[in-house]
């Protein structure tokens, strides 16, 4: 194998080794060597050796070796789409507890995950979908009703998550307990309990798309009984290669599917910190006002005026030589 570009001659001297003669008889600036690796490597070892026609006193000074770590952008793209991104809870309490069909649970919240591959040779991917399922108070959030895949060899481990109550064959009684969610801006895996759908994408073809469709219902009873003004129900999605440190996916997942949930008419709490800041600010302004009035003599003039009025109100005393 020989490569020659702009005076640079390269040859494959042994397996995975390319030797290049750069700048003979003289080295020029901005000379480049472009070489495409036929196999994925985690590093490249580059050795430079400078030679001259004269005799070198220290030949070792003309050698340097550099190890360059390699990573690869796989060109895999992760995207998602949902049927709704905003929901208003306007049903009055108490919530329905007799669950006979999916409609008794609440509204549909469905989303589709799309994984697209470019031209980089990636044959296996791991997809994970995190679903926020239960609050800290034990109230249910999402109920998975169905999961479908499309686009090739995609297998998902979700049998324990899809319709666990078997509502297609029997009814169920669900209970909901009041819960304060005012301080919970996001119902995600950091604030609630999540369950995971894990999928394997095999034999991925060049320039192909793969889909995972998740259908759920929102446990509306939880959001009817809970106390909050607005929050976000946030499933997350991530995809990895077999070697995530070497084969990268940019931008790096996870990606979120955000559903904003609001409850009109719910009164919001005034944080204690806001009250404390307001009181302190008021006291500071009062102190400044008093200080300015004192500086400009307001209290002195007022005192003198009051003193004068007091003197005028006192009856005059007779002199010693005055005849009564």
From TrEMBL:
The keyword rRNA-binding does not apply. The chain crosses the membrane at residues 274-294. It is a single-pass type I membrane protein. InterPro entries: Integrin_alpha_C_CS, Integrin_alpha_Ig-like_3, Integrin_dom_sf. One of its GO terms (cellular component) is integrin complex. One of its GO terms (biological process) is cell-matrix adhesion. This is Integrin alpha-2 CD49 antigen-like family member B. It comes from Takifugu flavidus (sansaifugu).
């Amino acid at each position: 194998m020989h490569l020659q570009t702009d005076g640079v001659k390269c040859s494959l001297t042994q397996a995975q080794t390319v030797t290049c003669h750069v700048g003979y008889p003289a080295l020029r600036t901005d000379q480049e060597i472009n070489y495409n690796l036929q196999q994925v490597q985690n590093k490249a070892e580059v050795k430079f050796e400078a030679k001259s026609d004269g005799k070198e006193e220290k030949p070792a000074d003309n050698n340097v070796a550099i190890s360059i770590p390699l990573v690869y952008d796989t060109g895999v793209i992760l995207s998602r789409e949902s049927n709704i991104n905003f929901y208003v809870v306007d049903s009055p309490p108490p919530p329905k507890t007799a669950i006979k069909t999916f409609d008794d649970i609440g509204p549909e919240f469905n989303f589709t995950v799309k994984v697209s591959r470019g031209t980089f040779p990636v044959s296996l991917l791991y997809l994970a979908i995190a679903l926020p399922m239960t609050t800290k108070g034990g109230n249910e959030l999402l109920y998975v009703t169905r999961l479908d895949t499309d686009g090739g060899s995609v297998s998902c481990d979700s049998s324990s998550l899809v319709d666990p109550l078997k509502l297609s064959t029997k009814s169920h009684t669900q209970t909901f307990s009041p819960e304060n969610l005012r301080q919970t801006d996001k119902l995600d895996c950091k604030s609630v309990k999540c369950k995971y759908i894990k999928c394997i994408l095999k034999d991925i073809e060049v320039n192909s798309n793969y889909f995972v469709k998740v259908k759920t219902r929102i446990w509306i009873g939880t959001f009817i009984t809970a106390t909050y003004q607005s929050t976000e129900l946030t499933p997350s999605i991530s995809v990895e290669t077999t070697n995530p440190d070497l084969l990268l996916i940019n931008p790096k997942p996870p990606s979120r599917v955000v559903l904003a949930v609001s409850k009109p008419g719910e009164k919001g709490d005034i944080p204690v910190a806001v009250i404390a800041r307001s009181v302190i600010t008021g006291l500071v302004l009062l102190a400044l006002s008093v200080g300015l009035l004192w500086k400009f003599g307001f209290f002195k003039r007022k005192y003198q005026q009051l003193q004068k009025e007091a003197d005028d109100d006192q009856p005059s005393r007779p002199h010693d030589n005055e005849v009564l």
